[in-house]
Specification:
By secondary structure, the protein is an alpha+beta fold. It folds into 2 domains: 1-38, no CATH class; 40-102, no CATH class. The protein is built from 5 helices and 2 strands, in the order ααββααα. The chain has helices at 3-20, 33-36, 56-65, 76-84, 89-101, and strands at residues 41-46, 49-55. Strands 1-2 form a two-stranded antiparallel ribbon. The radius of gyration is 14 Å and the shape is globular. 9% of the residues are buried.
């Protein structure tokens, strides 16, 4: 689906959850920065283990405190994907740090 349709769906789901006082869990691959800003809370898994669970507004600071600061003007979800994917040996070597800090 195109990015506008994805944004509208996530926006509508957020509105629906708020209006009905419900939680909606979803997965999304590489959300735009506009979509990312709609999320209240995030859950990140690496190798099947939790490495972050909390407010979306706190995720960048959480990883920066571990030494993984997102570049200025970058899209946070793109950065998170870049430091967590398993195709990079350096990323895999950082997994224990994520697990210990969680």
């Amino acid at each position: 689906m195109d990015s506008l349709t994805a944004y509208v769906i996530v926006w509508y789901m957020k509105r629906l959850a708020s209006k009905n006082n419900k939680t909606i869990a979803m997965t999304i691959h590489q959300p735009s920065s506009e979509i990312y800003q709609l999320f209240d809370r995030l859950v990140f898994l690496v190798a099947g283990k939790l490495v972050y669970q909390g407010p979306s507004a706190d995720a960048e600071g959480y990883f920066a405190r571990m030494g993984f600061k997102a570049p200025d003007f970058s899209n946070p979800p793109d950065y998170f994907m870049s430091i967590m994917h398993h195709e990079s040996k350096a990323n895999v070597e950082n997994y224990p740090k994520y697990f210990e800090n969680y």
